[in-house]
Amino acid sequence: MTESEKNLLKTNRTLRILNECNKALIRAAHEQGFMQDVCRIIVETGGYLIAWVGFDVKNSRCGVRIVSQYGSEESHLADLDMIWGNTNIGCRPDGKAIRTGNPTIIRDILTTQEVSGRYTAAVQKGCASLIALHFHNEDVSGVLNICAAEPDAFDHEEVDVLMGVVHDLSYGIMVLRDRERLRQLERQLLQAQKMQAVGQLASGIAHDFNNILSAITSYSFILRNKLKEDDASKDTLDRILYLTERASHITKGLLAFGRKQDFEFSPVRLNNIIRSVGKLLSRFIGENVAFSMKLSKADPEIIADMTSIEQVIINLATNARDAMPEGGRFTVETDIVEIDDNFRQTHGFGEPGTYARLSVRDSGMGMDEETRRRIFEPFFTTKEPDRGTGLGLSMAYGIVKQHNGYITVESEPGKGTTFRLYFPAIQASSSKHRVVNIPDIRGKSETILLAEHKKDTGSSLKRILEEFGYNVIEAEDGKDAIEKFSLAKDEVRLLVIDALVPDKKGREVFEEIRKIKPAVRGIIAGGDMAELIRKNHIFDSNVAYISKPVLPHSFLAKIREALEHDHPGW
After folding, report:
1. Domains of the chain: total
2. How far apart are CA 419 and CA 184, in angstroms?
3. Fewer beta carbons under 10 A from the terminal one: N or C of the chain?
């Protein structure tokens, strides 16, 4: 075979490498498989001895980390030092290629003076010449290394073609990472849609259940107050009231998950919440768990329902305690962070801005990926049947969402778990909130207009109000409420309207009635408080809100507060 025929054969062989690599890119589903295919094609189609891909690793001893390889005894290439000996990264072919951005070629390892004697291990592998080709894109910087069994294996034409291969390699890695990011975003979207659907179902059930509980609680309360102090039936009724209150906690958990729970929001310092609940946590998590708090000196302030955030922390602490049956470390930490586009790209959510971050960390058994994906689903639990309801983390998720916040989790089996909660931070406020004392919950013959969308609940609330000294005008729906108020506007002192009253929402009914009598006050029961807050209605001086199930004593106290408080902002 003549020299020209050999060169032609060599060129065709190299072009086949490029062609096969292009096909591999089209077929590729994942980055690792694509890089492995490129290395295999270079060796099998190109007839080279070894091919491997390394990524540039900053602050590393070797500087380059092998991510894919193929060829002579490839299992022994786990450490680059096997090939390069103890040569400094900057002097090695791969290091020089990364540093200069140009191909680095050693045409004869045995006779090239600058490397002679340094690459004994490479020679033992059969390497006579080698080339290192640098590539980089917005995601990664790396190098493609090829060893040949014969000296001077890389001429100009071959290098040009191999530059095309390394360009395809770089482009392929970038495209496949973009695809993976897209798949991750799709998974996050599907998960968010699933959580939203489950939340809507859960909150719908909880709303209906709350109305039943309100009626049971109200009638039990009325009956109990009719009994004499020494009546033995009082104990039975107290038990009923206690059990309905416990049931209400379950519905609150479902409503929190569905982002439908009612809250009382106000400016609060996150550190104060941690200090408040910290004393309880130190006893709650057990003596065999080391508990510590690291509170930010910046002392971030947020708009929050303090009781609900305390509940979130307790739920996370419960989860941590159960993950550390043999003891461990439990840490609660606060700081201020900025959410930017990088955060959004990583997690698939997040509005840019300044956030107060609450980190809750344990050294427990950790979770696998499947568990991490499901931990916020209501009733999902890995615990024994008698160890929990599976609502703790779903409640935490819902509460954080209702505070316009975000929650992330990092965990691996055997490496503990870290929950990070992000709440929009506000500028420090010096406002003080007046405490209203209501000494007596009995009415003084005031007239109240009541509109409740569930007949049983409405009847029970009407009975309570009448039992405690109020006159009640009952409306069937929103339209009926407006008409009856028009006829009795001089008598009605207060409106009590269900948020989901038929025909119109409770807030809409109140606004229509206020056109007739601007100074009228109202209480809206139930509904999505978070939505009202986002629309800035929560601070209206003439309207208050009460959550369901309605607890009679709290309900009556709210009535007196509404009637007797003469200042705006009640």
Report:
1. 4
2. 20
3. N
